[in-house]
Amino acid sequence: MLKRFAQGPLSDRLARMPAVALLGPRQSGKTTLARSLGGTYLDLEQESARVRLDVSFDALAEQDELVVLDEAQTLPEVFPRLRATIDADRQRNGRFLLLGSVSPALMTDVSQSLAGRLGLVTLTPLLLPEVGADALDALWLHGGFPDGGVLDPAAYPAWQLDYLQLLTRRDLPDWGLAAPPRVTERLLRMVAAVHGQTQNVSRLAQSLGLATGTVTSYLDHLEGAYLIRRLPAYHANVRKRLVKSPKVYVRDPGLLHALLGAPDSTRLLEAPWVGASFEGFVIEQALGVLSLHHPEATAHHLRTARGEEIDLVLERGDERWAIEVKLSTQVRRDDLARLERVADLIGARRRVLVSRSREVVDGGQTVAADLPWLLAALAEW
Fold first, then answer.
1. Half-sphere exposure (CA, 13 Å, Cβ side) for 181?
2. Same domain as 109, residue 138
C-alpha cells in the first residue's frame, strides 16, 4: 500500500473531533486508507451493512474502536442519529469516520446535521510526491487513480472510460443528477473540449439544447462528484477590468485524455490542447498538496480584459502567490517578465513559473522551477 499524505491530517482530525468525513472521488483510495486505521467497517451501499448498522447502532456507538461508514451519502437518515450520539458525549473524539464520494455541497444532510461536530479531509487521486518525481509523465498521462494506469499502464484508457460510464449511468443519478446518462456524457466531453478555458454556460446550453440554469445545475453535480473544477476568477481592486468567469477543468488528467482520445504520450504531446492539459495537471497537483497542508488557502485564476493572465493565484492569510504554467523545457526571460508585470497588479509576494525544465532558478521573489519544486514549496508554505 502506498503511503497517502492524507493519513497525517486524517489522524489529526480524528484526535480532535468526534467525527471526520474523508471525501474524494470514487476509486481514489478512501476505503483502503480508512481500513488501514482498523475499527469496524460498514459499506452502506450494501443492504446487509445497513441492517447491521440499524440493529447494532447503540452498541457500535458505545464501542471504543473507530466506526467507519463507507459511502455515507447513500444513507442520509443516519446523520441525525450520529448527531444525537455525539451530543450525548461531546468529550469523546475519533468515534466515527464517514467516507463519501460527493462534496459537502451535495451532502446537505451532513452540513445540516453535523455542523461543528465533523472534521473534513479530502483525498485526491495520487499526488506526485506519493508516487515519486520519476513518475511525473505517467501520472500526467494516466491520471492519479490508483487503478487507472499510473501503477499499471495497461489499465489505461479502458479503466477511465468504464469509470465514467459507471458514474454517468448509476452514481450521478443516484446522487441527484437529473440528466439522462447520454446528456451527461455529452456534457463531460464538451467540458473536456474547453478544458482550461473560461466557462461559457450559454454556449454549452445552446449545444445541448437546454436552459442555462439546467446546465449550471448539471455542472454543479459534476463538480460535487470531483469530476470537474471551476476555478473562480480573482477579484481585486486594480486599475484594469478583470474577467469574472471561472475557468473550467476536468480534474483528473487521465479522464481528460481518455475523453479526448490520447491513448499514449506521443498522441498527447501532438495534441493542440496539450498545454492546457499540463496547466490543469499542475493546478490539480498544487491544490491537492495545498488542501492537505493548508486547507484554509484559497485559489483563483486572474485574467484581464486585455488578455493578461495568471494561471493560479493562491492566498493564505495576507500572503499571495502568483503561479504561471508553461509546457516548455526552456524558460524565457519575456515569460518571467510577463509574470512579474501581472503579479505586480495584485501585489503577489511569490511568483513562480512552472515549466518542464529541471533547472531551478530562484531569484527570491520570482522563481523558475519544475512541478516537484512547487509542490515542496507549497507543503512548507
1. 9
2. no
